[in-house]
Amino acid sequence: MATLTYSNVAAQAHPTTLIIGELANLKKVNFEAVSSAIAGAVTEKAFNEAVELLGDSDCIWLVPKHVSIVTLSSRRSRNTTPTAAHHMMEGVGKFLGKNGQANVVVVCQRQYVFACGVAVARAFPLYSRKSNEPSARSVTVTFVTPDDSSPLSDQDIQTLSSTANAIRLAADIVDRPRNEMTCDDMVAKANEVAESLPGVKLTVIRGEDLAKGGFGGIYGVGKAATTPPALIVLSHQPAEATKTVAWCGKGIMYDTGGFSIKTKTGMPGMKRDCGGAAGILGAFKAAVEVGFTQNLHAVLCVAENSVGPVATVPDDIHILYSGKSVEINNTDAEGRLVLGDGVAYAKKDLKADIILDMATLTGAQGITTGTSHGAVLSNSESWERCAVSAGLISADMVYPIIYAPELHFQEFKSSMADMKNSVKNFDNAYCSNAGLFIGSHISNNFDGALPWLHFDISAVAFQGERATGFGPALLLSMFGEYSRSNMLLSVAPSLPNDANNGKRPKN
User: Fold this and answer.
1) Which residues of the chain are under the pLDDT cut of 70?
2) Whether 214 contacts 319, CB under 8 Å
3) Which of 168, 336, 347, 420 is catalytic?
């Protein structure tokens, strides 16, 4: 396992050094800016000649297996991040040696330091059970910004470190198998996060208390599991706050599909169905660490969708926390049930001014927006634009899906209850419909009076067989105006006027 350290001091020589960035930026680098990292190993002449030989998406080993220069692709369209950070996980993972102390020298424009810097963390997963895993190593990440030679501030380094740790925390939760990450383990992890943050309050409602409290969605999904389901709420409430933000995460610790059971090929990988809650927990921790100025609540809707004698079956009807009745016609459409309870709690109990949910909700997300962009659904055009902008600048990219409840919500029509939990026609904007189900537990008529965003991250929560830690970079960028971090303030999109009353927090 690697220890990742961000530094605003020029990198010192280590056995392994990777210099990575876009070719245009690398060509502007003065050798003196990187010489301390490769002292004695590479001459200025050799470095300059190597840069001239490089092409786009290329690599040259200056010292075989020890010192390399990697160029990230400069190809991009209007819907792709301008930072090239979305290539960082692959570039660092492929070309940095696996053993010993190492340097990663990131070369980028100053405005892209946040996205490129935290993206490095994705290449260093925390979880492994390999018997031949390399010994612990130390990796130092430094930056060369050709357009601005001034060093990063200590506050900038804290922001990068907190966000990188949040990404690795989220990825670690998602990577762990069900026998190591149950509902009990998720409660323990949330408690660990809460205890590390002064002033944060932890609320946990579990098991039969969920049923007594009216949380029919979370309880109905998780009641058959050996570890009881839970609603976990972490609350940060600074004295100067004037707004309340709720981030809700789907935390299905394993999804068998329930009685609508998945196939032998469709079930492997369902440990990842907690990606939304993992991303929210990591983002909450980092946001509080760097100074979130408003009330912030992380609402984790945690359950295991299992089969057993007391499991929910199709035709059951559950009453969710919103008071609405739901006829179950598909037990494998469980994420929307737990989040229905979560967003209703955010509205009724937390009195949130803005509600956001994040979930590995549908396989249709990958078909709809692909494996590089998550899907965003919102009742607010201004918040939708804010989310897309934050995705581009953070490299946790998202793209809007159609919001038309007057056309689509009829898919959930039930003659027995207020709604069914799965649609009649899977060919009719299924990714949007799944999100609309969640939103229906905030508002009776989708009037948009309370801003709400839904992020479906099913296909972007992992790359290959590894979790990406999607979420923290997006949310920290998106809500940067509510942060005391100058780095986040500098990259944050403007929040809608009703969110910040036109004011920016004092640093």
Assistant:
1) 498-507
2) yes
3) 336
